[in-house]
Amino acid sequence: MKTIISTNNVKKILFFAIALFTTGLFAQDEEAKTKPKLSLSGSIDAYYRANLSAPNDENAIAPGSSFANLPGFALGMANVIASYEGEDVGFVADLVFGPRGTDAIFASPMYSATGNIVNQLYVYWNVSDKVKLTFGNFNTFLGYEVISPVANFNYSTSYLFSYGPFSHTGLKADFDLGNEWSAMVAVMNPTDLTEFNPTGNYAFGAQLGYSGQYLNFITDDGAYEIDFTGGFDVSEEFFLGINAAYFDNDGVGFAGAALYPQYATSDTFTIGLRGEYFTETGDFGAIGTGIEDSSVFAVTLTGSATIGNLMIKPELRLDSASDDAFINNDLTPTKSLSSFVLAAVYSF
To answer: Is domain 43-76+150-159+171-347 annotated with CATH 2.40.160.10?
Structure first.
């Protein structure tokens, strides 16, 4: 009898031990699910650029758009993004180093002497499954292209992207309206004043989205911009991106449209074209002709080869303006410029 009782006691002890161990495993699993996760990502990029129809010495010129404008072998930027994602709240700290990064944050006009390198710096709160609040410095919601070369198909950037806002600082609310509809409203510092607000004025933004198509609006001290950004999968291999915008500041501004057809020839290579028409109203000064109401038509042909996390992008670009905006190899003013870029972009 004692032996039977002893055996039963052993069974009970083993049962409770297994139960406690299992409960501990489940508790650890639940803790792992709810514990915020710190992640690090980013990219580096470098490129070679040469004019085909213009000098490549001290007289070298480039299109009037942002980035990838330095001659010869040149640096893009190092982009390091730290993010902390909790169940409902988190943050993003996005830092940039190098020429592209400096151009992206306008050399941090308020704090350039202290070496500000912030591209984005914000916290967010998922209030519910349908509402998200973002507070801080975030990249713009307007336009098809972005600052990071990882998310752009073409390495050089469009005029539409270059003369729209890059980043904002403020508070925005994103809403999931259901059935593929979304909306966003924002109150922000004046455009490009990303460190603090020295004017006391504020910009207001809004977005309405449906199934990957977005209608954007921003108004800032009398100036305003309307922007449409979207795209369609025509087939499994063929994608067509679209961007159109109109900006006005008391009769001075720009308008334009761009198409981005891209065709994947394999899992590792895609070829794409950006065709853009950009026109100024008044003396906006983006194209560089010195003449009011100038326009430019730019065609950029880009190949993108993927090798693991590395993308190699050869690119041919032709900018053709309505008036003399460039020079040729004889240093004579001309309406067109052809150039070549070979870029390498590594993401992690």
So the answer is: yes
